[in-house]
Amino acid sequence: MKNLSKFKAFALLLFAVAFVSCDNSDDPTPMPVDNTITGIAVQNPNLKILVQALTKADLATTLKGAGPFTVFAPTDAAFTAFLKTTPYATINDVPKEALTQILLNHVVSGAVKSNALTTGYIKTLAKGNASTTNNLSMYVDLSSGVKLNGVSNVTTADIIASNGVIHVVDAVIGLPTVVTHALANKNFTSLVGALTGAGQPDFVATLSGAGPFTVFAPTNAAFTALNAELAPGGIQSVSAADLTKVLQYHVVSGNVLAATLTEGQMVTPILTPAQKFTIQLASGAKIKDANNRISTIIITDVQCSNGVIHAIDKVLLPVL
């Protein structure tokens, strides 16, 4: 009888152990989910190269941090296309410093959802190559979807992370030159047309160079006004040689930010040094050209990797 009681007790103990064991396997402790920007990128099968790049550049940990950040995230296909334009076979072959700046050019401070974007300039976290403390500018164009710097489209918007937001893009956004920003903004199509017109030097190659350059860039409206000012012949009546002088008159050496301009400052263009123009700051920043015509600076400090652009509302004219 004693042996039977011991057997029953042993059987009950085995049943209890088995029950607890089954209960634990049915309700495992859940693993924490990483919903940071980096964590979401790691989980996305189309962002593998981005994760590799962030890891190499020591930015994976940064994008796990508090933020908030907005990341325009290129797909694997975007990185593959980008690498074909470089001497590098894989993302790991890109020098770390260059890769860091390219990646930071896809990151904006704050959690910016798509409905908060507007057409115009925002600042990325990249510095680029220009010797300045001013961060690179990114041009957002909402005329048809969301296009960035004229080269990259948002394909999937508003992936919400715990420390910001991700917008997936279809192209890597390279560090913008003066030419990049002139091409990206549709308000500069007349300027681009003049710079690339027949009989002009290769302004595109020059303004894509190391620089740095400061460009006082007339808008389309400025060229329209000049056309009326030169009536009846209009801009078409200006010779190619004189148009070259006009365009050169808008380019200054150095990365000259708006805050460094001073009242009465005489500015010397790179290729027309004999003809200066004058800065006037009373009632807003203006320029008085060699013909005493006044132009207002309407957009300042569009930072490029090789200089800076300030938009103006009237074409500057040297004495021809």
Automatic annotation (TrEMBL):
Q: Organism's domain of life?
A: Bacteria
Identify the residues that the record assigns to the FAS1 domain, covering every copy: 34-173, 175-316
Keyword Signal recorded = yes
Signal peptide segment: 1-25
Q: Which UniProt keywords apply?
A: Signal
Per its UniProt record, what Pfam families does this chain match? Fasciclin (PF02469)
This one is known as Fasciclin domain-containing protein
Q: Which species is this record about?
A: Flavobacterium flabelliforme
